[in-house]
Amino acid sequence: MRGGEYTRPTAGLAFGYAQANLVILKLELAFDFLLFCQRNAIACPVLEVLEPGCFEAKFLAPGSDIRTDLPRYRVFHQGVLQAEPLSIVDYWQSDFVSFLLGCSFSFEGALLEQGLEVRHISEGRNVPMYVTNVPCRSAGVFSGPLVVSMRPFAARDVAKAVQITGRYKAVHGAPIHIGDPAALGIRDISAPDMGDAVTIRPGELPVFWACGCTPQAVVMQSKPDLVITHAPGHMFVTDLRDRDLEMIGG
Amino acid sequence: MRGGEYTRPTAGLAFGYAQANLVILKLELAFDFLLFCQRNAIACPVLEVLEPGCFEAKFLAPGSDIRTDLPRYRVFHQGVLQAEPLSIVDYWQSDFVSFLLGCSFSFEGALLEQGLEVRHISEGRNVPMYVTNVPCRSAGVFSGPLVVSMRPFAARDVAKAVQITGRYKAVHGAPIHIGDPAALGIRDISAPDMGDAVTIRPGELPVFWACGCTPQAVVMQSKPDLVITHAPGHMFVTDLRDRDLEMIGG
User: Fold this and answer.
1) Given CB atoms, is B247 within the 8 Å cutoff of chain A?
2) If pLDDT is split at 50, 70 and 90, which confidence band does A246 have?
3) Which residues of A touch B35 (CB under 8 A)?
4) What are the φ/ψ torsions at residue B30 (nearest 5 degrees)?
5) Given pLDDT bands bounded at 50, 70 and 90, which one contains residue B246?
6) At what angle do helices A27-39 and B27-39 cross, to 10 degrees?
7) B34 touches chain A (CB under 8 A)
8) Alpha-carbon span A226 to A219, nearest angstrom
9) How far apart are CA B247 and CA A73, in angstroms?
10) What phi-psi label fits residue B55: left (phi over 0), alpha (psi between -120 and 50 degrees) or beta?
């Protein structure tokens, strides 16, 4: 990724290691955003916050450079997506504060290990994500809707998926909604707002987890001057074992 | 408390309701402090952060006024304790940000319900608290030692106390240390740094929980211009049921 060679989504990559969402913003916005994360901890579980100007994730991946070590980024000016670069070295500013938030890709290894199929991995796609009609709790300048990721499971496997993912609270934990897209304001499950659609077979229910792309929907609504994030599904792969997350999340 | 009539510690008060530590500081310090809490979440579990200038804890106790509704406060100037007023109405500033952090008094009802004795309640004292030699993870201007509270339990009851309190992660959860004060740098268990000493009977072990007075020790070391806290043991009694905390803390 640092060399610009790997530019695809990271689902299914480096099983056993936690992955993270990235949000970078200027120091003057950092308190409001950290408070937003605290108030919406299921969608925005904070794994690490870097010191202002720092671009090494010392806790999650010593020696990393978060300006180059994700496969793809998104640059938002006043809430509008302006670019999707492979590196943000040219965008870096000395007062940038970087937030790394838990990602549900981190529990997919555990789902597979327990014999469950993760559809977007089987189909070689990015996970489907939807902007819901559920408002987040606002904080300072930040307000906007909850984003969810979706994985379909057979009715007999849904409880198992709840129990397995419920152990990983630092990476969104248990689903927030099961089986009724309309109740979340999702009109067409085959047309996700981010990522790719996946097949839902007869007898399967769509299962929804809070998603670390929530800050991106919130940035689009709140329109701060400048925010940089990962591109949806193109995560920061950390050195932390996913089983260590069970402890971080309590 | 609002009328200045109740000025004592709050251990044993309003069983079944969560209690909270208070830290108030100026907006310019708020990001550093919230980050300190995130990095030291066992000692500083955030229950609510009030908007700048706001003194009603809308989530924990609608209708409350955190300037008057605690029995006693502490005012620190550049890390030095200057006053212990019963109200902070005269100290209030429009850019104050108030943090309410979980308090271990919240799980004492559950300990009693399960048949365990809580010594400082039996003896009508404040809980004993100790400044340890364990450094917190620093954040911005804030660095300093971990503070712990101590409750003695018979050897046969220690595991039970761990299991009960482990369910309450939003109010410090399980003990961080059991049975060896010296390993925490505590020289004399009968001389706590805050609160009162309690009797430890033969066959009992001192059991230590991370304590929400940690920010006070950190303020004394970090010496910010102005910080107001609760007086140790003189907590904010909330409207939140302690059993609801089991969910907040995950």
Assistant:
1) no
2) low
3) 34, 49
4) -65, -40
5) low
6) 50
7) yes
8) 9
9) 34
10) alpha
> With 60 as the cut, is the pLDDT of residue B250 above it?
no
Q: What is the pLDDT of residues A143-173, one digit of tens each?
A: 999 999 999 999 999 999 999 999 998 999 9
Taking CB atoms and an 8 Å cutoff, what residues of chain B touch A172?
A: none
Burial class (CB in 10 A: 0-12, 13-18, 19+), A36: buried
pLDDT at B247: 60
**Model confidence band, residue B243 (pLDDT cutoffs 50, 70, 90):** confident
How near does any CA of chain A get to the CA of B124, in Å?
32
- Scored b (16 or more CB within 10 A) or e, A236-249 reads bbbebebeebbebb
Q: Which domains does chain A have, with CATH numbers?
A: 17-104+222-243 (3.40.1640.10), 106-210 (3.30.2040.10)
Nearest by Cα to A11 from A153, A129, A131? A129
ipTM of model over 0.85: no
- pTM exceeds 0.80: yes
The chain-wide mean pLDDT, for chain A, equals 95
Whether the per-residue pLDDT at B189 is higher than 70: the answer is: yes
CA contacts within 13 A on the Cβ side of A62 = 0
What is the distance between the alpha carbons of residues B22 and B4, in angstroms, rounded to a whole number? 18
**B35 and chain A: CB distance < 8 Å anywhere?**
yes
Could you tell me which chain B residue has the CA closest to the CA of A169?
Answer: B250
At residue A11 the predicted structure's pLDDT band, cuts being 50, 70 and 90, is: very high
Residue A3 backbone zone (phi > 0: left; psi -120 to 50: alpha; other: beta): alpha
Q: How many CA atoms within 13 Å lie on the side-chain side of B207?
A: 24
Of the candidates A86, A60, A4, A94, the one whose C-alpha atom is nearest the C-alpha of residue A248 is A60
Q: Which of B202, B197, B25, B12 is nearest to B108 (CA)?
A: B12
Least CB–CB distance from B30: residue in A31, A249, A250: A31
Give the C-alpha separation, A94 to A96, whole Å.
6
Tell whether the model's pLDDT for residue B242 goes beyond 70: yes
Contact B249 A249 (CB under 8 A): no
Instruction: Determine how many CB atoms are found less than 10 A away from the CB of residue A189.
Output: 16
Longest dimension (CA), chain A: 52
Quote the pLDDT of residue B248.
60
> CA of B42: which chain A residue's CA is closest?
A250
When CB atoms are compared, the residue of A30, A38, A173 closest to B250 is A173
